Every structure is written in C-alpha cells, then in structure tokens.
TrEMBL record, chains A, B:
Metabolic or biological pathway: Carbohydrate degradation; glycolysis; D-glyceraldehyde 3-phosphate and glycerone phosphate from D-glucose: step 2/4; Carbohydrate biosynthesis; gluconeogenesis
GO molecular function, one term: monosaccharide binding
Subcellular localization: Cytoplasm
Annotated protein name in UniProt: Probable glucose-6-phosphate isomerase
Length: 431, 431
C-alpha cells in the first residue's frame, strides 16, 4: 500500500497542513508508535489486533469448515464487527458462484426474504457472537435453526460457531458437538477481520486466507516510527491533524465496486474507535465513480469541513469497450473500461484539489487477497495511531451500552432505568 | 407520513431549537411555500418535479415494457439520478424472484461479474441518460449490447431507452424502433424517481406503480403554508435550522432493510441539491439496527455537529422468534422479530435524546408502494423547501462539471484545460 498526501499540503487546501506542522506531527507519531509497539508486545487489549496476522491459525479455520466446504451459500449470523469484516472480504475477493448472505439486522422482511431465497440444505451457517447473548444475532439464529428443522435439515451438520470461552453459544456448541472457533483474545470485534471472525466465509468460498494474512503481515512489517516511512501512520496522522484543523468529515471513496463494503467496514472502525469525548471524525461512505454523480457537488462546493480519501487498485481486470457507430462516442471505442474509471479517479482528485478540498490517495497493487489483507491491516493501524493522537480509549464503545440496556428492558428482560426513560419521550408530532 | 420533532425541541438538544425560533422559521416557510407553489404552477425547472405524480403516465410506462414483462432479470444502465431512484423502488417493494441489477459504475470487475451472472436472453435492459452521451452509461451499454450479440440475443428485442428529445440514444431508438420513453421536462435526474426514469424496472417487476404515484399525490396534497401542518416542510425547515445552529451532518437512518437504498437516494438528493456556495448538510447513510453496532458510539459521544433522522414503517411483516431452551435468551422466545427492531428504534431515539443529540422521527404507515411514493415525494418537497431557506440553486450541479471535462479530456475526447490541470498534480508519496 502506498499513500500520496500531496493534496493536503498544497497552499490551496482548506483545511490543509504545511511542512512544519507535519514535522511536529511526526514527533507525536514517533511516541505513539512506541506505545503501540509496547502494547503489541504485551498483547494488551486492542493493540493485540495488530498481531493477528501471526496469531491467527488458518489451518484451524479450514478444519472447522471441512464439513460445509461444498456449500453453495454461506449465511453469516452476526452484527457489527461480527459481520462487517467477513462481508468486506467476500465482497472484495469472493467468487461469483457462492452466495454470501449476512443476517446483521432484525428486520423480519429481510430475514423472511433471505430464508425464502436460499436452500438451507446447501447452506453453511456461521454464527458469531463473543458473548453468545447478542440479542439480534441470537434471535436470527433461533429463527434460522427452526427453519432448517422445518425443512428437514439437521442444523447441527451445517452450523459453525465462533464465540468466547463461555456463554450460551459455547454451551450449545459443546452440547451438539458443533465445529467451534474462538474469537481472538484482546481484539474488539471491529478489529477482528483478520481472525476467525472474518475469515470463515472466505475459507468456505475457497479464498486464499493465507494470502490475506500475508498481506496483513506485510502491513505489520511496514510499521515504522515516522509517518514519512509508514503509509498507515501517515494516513492516521494526517486524518487526525486535518480534523483538528476543521475536517470533521472523512469521506472514504474507493474506486472499485468490490470495495463498497470496505467503506462500510472503515466507517465502523473509524466511528466506533474514535467517536468519544466530543472527538472523532464522521466517516462518510462513498463509491467512485458512481458518487461523483451524487456527492461530489457537496464535497467541492459545500462547507470546508471535509477530507476525501480516494482508494484504488493500481491494476484492474480488463474489459474493452467496443467500437461504435454512435456519433460523439467514438472516443470510448476500444478503451478499457478500467481506463475510464481511472480517468474519473484522476479527474475527481484534481477537481477536489482545484477547489481546495484536502484529499489523499491510497493505492494497493491489486484487489486480491494479499492487497486486501494489507489494506485492512493498514487502516486498523492508522485508526489505532489516530486514537493515540486523539487520546481516546480506542478499543471501547461505552455509548452503545445505554441503548442496549433500554432495548433489553423494553423487550421484558428485566426493568431498567433506560427503558423507563424511553417512555418519557417528549412528542411534537406533525401529520 | 408523519414526523415527530419533539427531540429537537428538548432543552438538552445541542444544537437545538426553541418554540420561538420555530415560529420565526414558520414565517419563512410560508413565503417559501408560496414560491414553490408558483414554480409548480409555471412548471419551472425543478419545481416541476413536485407535479410528477399527476404528469407521469403509468400506462405509457407499462406499454413500453410489454415486450419484456416476463424477464427474469432487469438490468438498469444509468448513473446517479438515472439509477438511484429505480434501485430504491425495487429494493423497497420489488419481488424476491426478479433480479434487478444496476450498472452505475465503470468498474470492469463489476460489469464482468454481472454479465457472467445473468442470462441475457431473459434480461430486460433499461438504458437511461437524458443527454444520451453520459460516458459511464454509454460505455456500459456498448459492452452489454455486444455481449447480447455474442450470446445470440437480439438486443433490439430486449432494450428500453429513456432519454431526451435528441442525442445518440434517441437516434438509436428511432433507428432500431426500440420502445422509448421521455425523461420528464424540467426535472433534474435526482428528482425523477416518480417518472419514467424511476418506474420502468418496478413496472417490469409488476409493482403497483399507480399506487406509488398515488402515494406521491398524497404528498402533494399535504403541502401547506405552515411547517406545523406539513410533515415534509417540517423536516426541511428543521434540518436547515439545525444546520444553521451547527448540525452540519444529517444522518439518515431507516429502521428497515428495504430502505437501505433509500438512504443512498436521499444522500444524493440532499448533497447535490443543497451543497453549494459553502452551504449544505453532509448526508450520512446509516441503517438501523445494524449501525447501532457501528456508528452510534460516534453519534452519541462525538462532536455535536449532527442531527439523526430515524425512519420506520408503523407496520411490519411478521416473524416469530421460536422459544428456546438457551438460558438468558428466554426473553426473546415468542417475540416478533419486528418488535425487537422497534425496541431498538425506541432505544436509539431515547439514547440520542438522553445525550442531547437532536433527532427526528419519520414514520410511514407501511413499506408498500403507497407508503414509499409518499416518502420519496415528501423528501423531495423537504429538500426543495430547504433549498429556498438556504437560498441556493437547488436544481443545478455546477461543481460536477469540472471533473467531467477533465475525464473526457484524459480519455482523448479533445484537449481541455481541466485535463491539463490533472497532470500538474503535486505528489508527496509514502510507501
């Protein structure tokens, strides 16, 4: 992975950085890198995520998948960090033949529709929850399990569990002798893509999970005590510094359809890790070139509160646009479609620079297992570095808990003060 | 549709509004409503979009679709406003049997993958471009047309064109006697969902497009000169006023999987219409309950620069969670999955209010053709109203043009100053 930060340094960028401020920033990066390295060495909570490429055992994952490796469909039942990493990986490098469905919500219309669409007898179910009690996940799993039984499918033959050391899912796995994997120690869900949590569906699809981990390892080896030598830290440091200058919005805009889910994964990583104590950039997911016809107007002409992160692979698949008799379109004939996409990338980057909107360019060699592993790893390292610079607790998510307690109370799992607060809502309804 | 703005009025909301400022705002709404009504009466550019429910002819759309109404797959070739409305409608109310694919990008990997997946002999192609020269759309169309010919499929039997009065697509339609529909006069693409542009795939799927239009008509009838009597104007006015108080980010968070594309459609509408002259809220797409495990941490504990828009249907499909022997999960047994989702909605709303993050609740009766038509119409009316309050040119998108000229130049369609500017990029690359 490489990063080009030229367009945050230009005189016109607003907000922007100058060479002096980069030097000051680099001092802080050096210190933060040391803390991160120490945390990794001690396998501290969160920092341990950066050790996953070496601690994850791909053989154990393949072993757990043996019974269901010929499935035509994979159904991931999980939510948040238990689902997004897996979805990101299969969307980017999965094959076109195996369908990967994700039940990461509790919408009856969606669950009904997925169950109507897939053949449960040919489906591998991967249910993921560290605690084994996540309401959304367990509710969906109970529904799926019943649907399998109703269809005459033995659910114990087709279910893989990834969970913590104890809890209801662990007990269930033991009781029914299900293949069971451990969620990694000391790794929050949103940083667990390169572990059991993220790799099971990819393994069933036959993706090269070893290459994914090797890409992560290349990221680990690239970590260095200066932003000028380390693309991951350069990204985290520049994003943080731009935020301090007023870029409260960080637009993640990959120019590759396969990375659309990656932008969503990034949004979770960035928002949940850094959104604390009144700090944190708001991640906005976009997709090039499509969103040039949707969001670019705002980025170029709206408030100066944004940075744009443009991501692309340096090499793409080939597809030649045929020559045409249609007037005015002859310039497209015999062009590769990827060349059109890259021209749009270059044009957007220059258009933002021209308007003074700071943007950075991130490139991976190609969108394969190695390139994706590297990208995921580097973004996590960037986020952890940014967390050090913000001075927040990067690996917790305390603000999510209030709503969870309220929802549990509303569903009758014991009375909670939060559930009572819901009833006090002040209404001003307009019909 | 109804809207509840109680949670922007509470004392704790920051930013927030008080009763007095709402009264002042209502004065401006009254004037803006008059300008909008006048614009509609004169069928002025843009305002004409609010007349679509009465000017769109569903019979003409059904007529154009006759030859391909039994297709098992629909392929929309278009970009931005030419694709998002159609995708939003079929995602929300389409059937599960007919696949709707959208080629709204120029990624060779994606176009290759779609062509490998679908049976072109059973596919209806809808190609949409007002000018008939949009590079992304025409490049994809040329590829699809050749693929059909290679597969022995007569593309002229399976292609419907929606375009302007002249241009290459219109000529092509005439030459090959293709079913051709007009893009509506005076309506920018992003406001054209309730026209030929948005309704063709829905019609092929057998959706009730008359009910969609009737829902839009109900929205038209609800427009009134006071925000206290009109949910659409209440939304546009409150969003604008909160932006002026510092809520530069507007999170659109529907609690219904079928509305995930709607959030994307809204993001285009809001960003491209209002992002001008340094003004405009940044729309952020989210999905409840999924993104509670992703973004909520930031919304609750991050910077006070946000409003959150929560959307849901008042009635949902049914799906009962089975009773379970699993300890700690008995509270889920015999609950409807939709009740879990609604409990999460209520909990998130209260959690945001508790943290002082302003939020509004929008409800439609159910997620059917009528409810969706109403929602799309009301959001457009809200956006147009907000544009009046901002004082921007709601219906143009000048900042998109720079990049288009640059891309065309790079692809060899004549030299442009913008293409030359791309070559001047200042690089600071870190590897």
């Amino acid at each position: 992975m490489n990063i080009d930060i030229g367009n945050v340094l230009i005189d016109e960028a607003e907000p922007g950085l100058d060479a002096d401020s980069l030097e000051t920033l680099d001092e802080r990066v050096r210190e933060a890198h040391q803390r991160i390295a120490d945390g990794r060495a001690r396998e501290e909570f969160g920092y341990a995520a950066l050790n996953l490429p070496e601690t994850t055992d791909p053989d154990a994952i393949r072993q757990a998948c043996t019974e269901v490796e010929d499935s035509e469909t994979i159904l991931t039942v999980g939510i948040g960090g238990s689902a997004l990493g897996a979805a990101t990986i299969t969307a980017a490098i999965g094959d076109d033949e195996t369908g990967h469905y994700v039940l990461d919500n509790v919408d009856p219309a969606r669950t009904n529709s997925v169950l109507a669409e897939i053949d449960l007898a040919e489906t591998a179910v991967h249910v993921v929850s560290r605690s084994g009690t996540t309401a959304e996940t367990l509710a969906n799993f109970l529904v799926v399990r019943e649907a399998m039984t109703d269809d005459g499918v033995d659910w114990t033959d087709r279910t893989i569990v990834t969970t913590g050391d104890d809890g209801p899912l662990r007990s269930l796995a033991k009781k029914h002798e299900l293949p069971a994997l451990d969620v990694p120690d000391g790794v929050p869900g949103r940083c667990a893509a390169l572990s059991t949590v993220g790799l099971v569906p990819a393994a069933i699809m036959g993706c090269d999970i070893e290459a994914l981990l090797a890409g992560g390892e290349a990221g680990a080896e690239s970590l260095a005590p200066s932003l000028f030598d380390c693309p991951a830290y350069a990204y985290g440091a520049v994003a943080h510094a731009l935020d301090q200058q007023g870029a409260g919005v960080n637009v993640m805009m990959p120019y590759a359809e396969g990375l659309e889910s990656f932008a969503e994964w990034f949004a979770q990583l960035w928002a949940e890790s850094l959104g604390k104590e009144g700090e944190g950039q708001t991640p906005v997911r976009a997709l090039g070139a499509t969103d040039q016809h949707s969001q670019l107007q705002l980025y170029r002409a709206g408030p100066r509160d944004k940075m744009v992160t443009l991501v692309r692979p340096e090499n793409r698949e080939s597809l030649t646009v045929p020559e045409t008799e249609i007037p005015d379109l002859d310039y497209l004939g015999n062009t590769d479609l990827g060349r059109v996409l890259d021209a749009e990338f270059d044009a957007t980057e220059a258009s933002l620079a021209d308007a003074g909107c700071p943007n950075v360019r991130i490139e991976i060699e190609r969108l394969d297992a190695h390139g994706l592993g590297r990208l995921l790893y580097d973004m996590q390292a960037a986020c952890i570095l940014a967390g050090e610079l913000y001075g927040v607790d990067t690996f917790t998510q305390p603000a999510v808990e209030w709503g969870k307690r309220a929802a549990r109370g509303l569903l009758g799992a014991g009375e909670t003060a939060e559930a009572r607060a819901v009833a006090d809502k002040y209404c001003r309804r307009i019909e």
